[in-house]
Amino acid sequence: MPAAGLLLASATSAPSPWMIVPFVLMLLAIALMPFIHAHWWEKHYAKLAVGLGLFTAGYYVFFLRDGPHMLEVAHEYISFIALIGSLFIVAGGIHIRVRGESTPLRNTLFLATGAVLANFVGTTGASMLMIRPWIRMNKYRITAFHVVFFIFIVSNAGGALTPIGDPPLFLGYLKGVPFFWSVGHLWAPWTFMLGGLLVIFYVFDRINFSRAPEVVRELETGYEKFAIDGKRNFFFVAIILAAVFLPSPWRELLMVAAAASSWHLTPKPVHESNHFNFHPIKEVAWLFFGIFATMVPALDYLQIHSDKLGISTPVEFYAMTGLLSSCLDNAPTYLTFLAAALGEQGLSLKSQADVTLFAAQHAATLAAISLGAVFFGAATYIGNGPNFMVKSICEHARVRTPSFFDYIIRYTLPILAPLLALVGWLFLR
Hints:
By secondary structure, the protein is mainly alpha-helical. The protein has one domain. The protein is built from 19 helices and two strands. It has a two-stranded antiparallel sheet. Residues about 1-10 and about 220-225 have low confidence and may be disordered.
């Protein structure tokens, strides 16, 4: 069996390629249905996600006789929702008021701060803490590119320096990659990617800023003072982050307890100031139920046949990990290609000593896999968990967000893709 096929709970036999169809249908529905029939989609998206997910789960349980594999996927989904949901609730109890108008320079510094913060509280934590202040500080002129660059920088690329920053790196740490390996080996491409995105954003925002009448800017933001309400919730954020390092089920139970405590202890005016409601997390929970279940055949097929992909150089690992991370969960994709890379060297993902040795002797390949998983997660709304959450929060704040394909065509391909290519060319050749 190929090395990649050893990780997770691989199916007892290879799934039929036709079982990838439900995952494709799930992606197409997310991309097209809000545009084709928005009212129908808002009413029935949960039914579609559950239906496709249960169809795939039934195939594994009753046809492949591999129920344990789906139980493991269910556990991963519960862990994902526990983290995303608890941070969503706790962050909803923190109201950050900004001071004065948001100039292009202040916006750029805000995003840079979010990128650094992501390495300490994770891209999910940073996104949930900062998206509402981001909307408020740009409320008189916020456009789609403000949302997209927030996702590019805070929700994805920012978290590449520590295992806490993004789930793939945390899994690598658990498998044996030293804690400070990421900051020691990825700081240069991280700096380049963040610098490029921030410069491009500043240019765009300068143009946007120049078009907003000065009188409007003063009326909208001139009276505001910086303040933070609900400070006690930073304590609950710390609890959630500490819980990440605990074994299951204590990890999920502590996260849920922190979220419940935050919800009951936060004064109602703070939630009202944030226009807090549970609809965004409900939408993410239902849609990712379908995504987690239907992507299993695609991931299993990739794992079983990874030795036939013919990839060996860091650039090839970077491109393949990245492309698949943009539409599949980037955490198992990271493990799949890490296992394949270890197998080429006669090493095993099951041995922490082997992984630590690989990190020391084949740093370029591990850097390629890590950067591909983290950076390419920004390429689509479903590339990383926080992306869809940010989109949902913005939509419920009545901020215009690009559609699934509009996001890719107008922002990923002309802006993000060239920077991703340059990272591969400059740092991984």
